[in-house]
Each structure stands twice: as C-alpha cells, then as structure tokens.
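Title: Comparing notes on inverse folding

I've been comparing how different people in this forum approach sequence design from structure. To keep things fair, I'm posting one structure and asking everyone to reply with a full sequence. Here's the target:
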C-alpha cells in the first residue's frame, strides 16, 4: 500500500520543472504572443501586427488603412472577446501548474496536461478561424478587387499576399507557451514510465524535457526557392530573372529576403544592421544549376567582370569545383570566398 502511494507521487525534479513552467506562464502575460510581419517594396522597413495576451499592437492603424482598400475588415482589440478572457486563462494555468507542483500527484499532472493540450488546439483553431474570416469575407465595394484572391495570413510561416510577404511567427510569449506544452508532455511520459520502469531514467528524461523549450526557440532557416520571373529583389526591386545569379538571406525567425545579385544582398547587409545581426543563413544561386541555392559557407565563389551579373556584383557561386573550373576557363577572373567579398 505504501508502495502504491509512493508511486502516485511526482518526482522532485518534475515538481521543480512544473514550478518553472508556472513562472514561465506568468511571464507570458507581459510579453507578445505572436507577430505577423508584412514586407513590400513600398514598405521596405516592414509592418508588424503584434498580438499580446490582452490586445493588438504594432502598426495596426497603417495595416487597417491598407485593409480598407482590399475590402478586409479593420482590426480592433475590442472586437475580439478572446482578449478579455485570455489573460485570465493564462493566469489560471500558471496557478494550476504551481498547484500541481505543490500537491505533487501524478493524476493531477495528467489532468493538467490534457487541459493544456486541449486549450492549445482550440486556441490555434480559433486563431486560424480568425485569419480565415478576415482574409475571405471581403467587402464587395472595395477599391481594389482581385477575382479569386483571398488575403488570409499564414497560421505559421511564410505566404505571399499580392506584393506583400507575410510572416507569421510565435513571439516570446508564444515560444514559452509552446515550450511549456512540450515540457509538460515530456513530464507526463516520464512520470508514467517512472511508475512502471527503471527510476534511474528520471534525471535524464527531465533534463530532455527542459531542453524542449530551448529547441522550440528556433524556426525554419532553410532556403526558400526563388521564383524567377516573379519574385522581386528586396534591395533594387527589379524582378529576379537570371537563373545564374541571385541570393537569399534567412533570419533566425525564418524571414526570407531575396535578391537578384550578390551586390544587392551585400549592400542590404551593410545598410540594415538590425537584420544583418540576426541572419541565420545566407545563400547564393548556383551559377551552373537551374536556380538552386547553395549556402555561402559551402559555396565556391568566382569573381569576374566578364560574368556581367545583373547589378554588377561580378560574383558567381558554384556547388562543385568542376563547374567553377569550366567557367574560369571561359571568363578570366579569380577564385574568392564569402569572407573576402563580404568585408
């Protein structure tokens, strides 16, 4: 009987982690949950819609002005009942996490996990439904109408909306909320297994659960294919059309900037210190390919004025030495490196 009672208790490490989760949810009340960034040639600095637990912030008025022309409803905090109840729900979960940690019962942890996961799914569906409503239910008397066009932002990630690039990503509060969910799920699995199997796994699995929060901090920083003949250079605004040249920057948050020439890419890096300090990956178009991108850390670069690049960058990138040597035999120049050209 004593053994069963002990098996129903949470491990000390799990209780500490739950208290940390409670503290994290308390922080969520005071930081942004989500951001939607909009970038277009006429707004090179970008527009941002910030979603806080208790309302909207950022460039709301400018975005509302743009929405008016395409028939979208304007955004106002008072129109969303979610902002009236969300702070209380987050606060309640913070209290529940602390309570479960103090009481220390496994059954309560499982109930808390189920409630948290259900709330997460319902919240994301509500967010998607909100985006769908605003992107599809358009005013038929709008000044600008594009037949068949909808303006629903992405739930998460990137989407092209006319000439705007839209990026939807969790902000600090969103990452904490997702991390708490991942940690709680890991703790639930840990405690279930701990009552059945080897208890020596407790410390290792709990440490892995804490690491989930850190791993969720990152989002996709992989290259996004350039649509030649459609995409515009972020710097010079020219259409990217030559499949031998071009480049791409991807920030740590997954935001993508495309360029028609290494010259434009480098000039942009020099002109925007904030973005350049947050670059996760830099890519150049493989000169010998069909528009494929190659990371500058592994690319072989060749500089030649005879290449006649779109904006005078005179740099060609290659993924293989053989392709570079073949071009070098036709166009006099010198091999170089990204460290050299980016100085």
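Reply #1:
Here's my take.
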């Amino acid at each position: 009987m004593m053994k069963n009672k002990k098996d129903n208790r949470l491990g000390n490490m799990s209780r500490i982690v739950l208290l940390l989760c409670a503290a994290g949810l308390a922080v969520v009340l005071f930081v942004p949950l989500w951001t939607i960034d909009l970038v277009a040639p006429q707004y090179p600095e970008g527009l941002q819609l910030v979603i806080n637990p208790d309302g909207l912030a950022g460039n709301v008025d400018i975005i509302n002005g743009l929405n008016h022309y395409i028939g979208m409803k304007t955004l106002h905090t008072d129109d969303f009942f979610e902002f009236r109840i969300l702070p209380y729900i987050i606060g309640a979960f913070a209290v529940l996490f602390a309570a479960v940690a103090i009481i220390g019962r496994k059954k309560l942890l499982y109930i808390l996990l189920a409630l948290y996961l259900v709330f997460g799914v319902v919240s994301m569906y509500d967010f998607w439904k909100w985006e769908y409503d605003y992107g599809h239910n358009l005013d038929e008397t709008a000044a600008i109408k594009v037949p068949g066009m909808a303006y629903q932002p992405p739930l998460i990630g990137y989407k092209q909306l006319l000439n705007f690039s839209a990026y939807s990503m969790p902000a600090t509060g969103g990452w904490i909320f997702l991390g708490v969910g991942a940690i709680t799920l890991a703790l639930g699995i840990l405690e279930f297994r701990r009552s059945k199997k080897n208890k020596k796994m407790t410390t290792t699995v709990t440490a892995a659960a804490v690491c989930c929060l850190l791993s969720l901090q990152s989002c996709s920083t992989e290259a996004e294919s350039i649509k030649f003949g459609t995409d515009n250079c972020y710097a010079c605004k020219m259409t990217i059309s030559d499949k031998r040249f071009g480049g791409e920057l991807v920030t740590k948050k997954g935001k993508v900037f495309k360029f028609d020439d290494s010259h434009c890419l480098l000039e942009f890096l020099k002109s925007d210190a904030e973005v350049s300090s947050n670059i996760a990956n830099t890519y150049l178009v493989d000169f010998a390919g069909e528009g494929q991108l190659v990371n500058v850390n592994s690319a072989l670069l060749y500089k030649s004025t005879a290449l006649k690049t779109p904006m005078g960058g005179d740099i060609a990138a290659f993924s293989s030495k053989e392709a570079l040597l073949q071009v070098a035999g036709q166009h006099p120049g010198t091999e170089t490196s990204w460290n050299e050209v980016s100085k």
